[in-house]
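Incident review: delayed structure delivery

Summary: a single-chain prediction request sat in the queue longer than the usual turnaround. Root cause was a stuck worker, restarted by the on-call engineer. No data loss occurred. The affected request and its eventual output are reproduced below so the record is complete for anyone auditing the incident later.

Affected input:
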Amino acid sequence: MRKPALYSPSTRPGVPKAGAQGAGPAAAQADAPVAPIPRRRRWRAAAARWAASPRVMWSALALLAALLAASAWQGSANGPKALTQKDIDAAVLRTLTTQNIPSKAARAAEKIRPAVVRVMSYGKDKKGEEQEMGVGTGVVIVDKGIILTNLHVVQHAQTIKLVFADGTESGASITGVQAQNDLAVLQAHTIPDDLIAATMRSTGDLVPGDEVVAVGFPFGIGPSTSSGVISGFDRAFKSPEGEQEIGNLIQFDAAANPGNSGGPLVTMDGEVVGIVTGILNPTSHRTFLGIGFAVPIESAASAAGLPPF
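Output delivered after worker restart:
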């Protein structure tokens, strides 16, 4: 059974954006000394934080299995010896200190990647033969094949083709447009049985400096991952080719290039907060200089008629 769109609540209540009300002297009082976390709580928190990594979990299980085998062997030779909490703690701690743990950006990219789609637009050449016009990115927001991308990726296409994360290929139709935000909604004609939709998250409590990851197909290469931070909010952008200015954008510095358009901008939890829509380069070259823009997911999801957060 297909599921509705997935939303995640904000995880930091009451954190205002830069310039928001309530960010005055009273907020500075929050910088009170913090008591150190006991050692046991520190590694248990680390264990919970890395639990999403299959490699770490399997390593921990292997260590525990070895401990159980050793315990059984000692029990047969010297009488019963129970596996203690100390033994378990030591096994988990050893795993955390000896295994290569994936970075936060790597885990975020791994979570969002099943929902990232390659979007290819095709037209006719002078001989009437089909030719590729460009490559962009899309993100699945509902697992019945509803995909968000940029309007400029598919606007003049006569045919749209998709490639899902599992390699499934499909045609697509444009079912919705939000021209003021350069957004298009696609419906895939063929849907993988195990299609996974992205989880969307409100931008309400995000602040400049929060880490983000962009996943897409820059210059058709990918899926490619880049990481950076949110640089600001409520930015405006006008592409060199267009006359329309888009406002209320998220500015970020994770690398993006032509082909990233329409792809997801996600938090370190792998939850979508924006749709990448453009890069700023004052020269004639369309390459990344450190300033990218994304449409906030609140606006982007409304293009598909999804309810607000």
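Verification: The helical segments are 25-28, 39-49, 54-78, 85-98, 104-112, 151-154, 297-302.
Action items: add queue-age alerting; document worker restart procedure.
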